[in-house]
Amino acid sequence: MTFTNKGAAAGDVNRVDDLSKVLDDAKITSAPTSSDAALVVSDGADGKITIKGSLEAGKTVTVSYR
After folding, report:
1. Domain DUF7927 spans what residues (predicted)?
2. How far apart are the C-alpha atoms of 66 and 25, rounded to whole Å?
3. What's the start-to-end Cα distance of the chain, in Å?
């Protein structure tokens, strides 16, 4: 997932990717990672990947997992 702040001021990110209905037939094979420490990503152990943090104006951060 890619998060971009196109605004003129910092913006908060608080996103939950609920994979619980997918993970009953699959599994996360690589731990979720963020391309920048501005966003903190949970490990998804509960079937949900939580992404939180703050992005400065004009900043783009990518969160990846498989």
Report:
1. 1-66
2. 14
3. 11
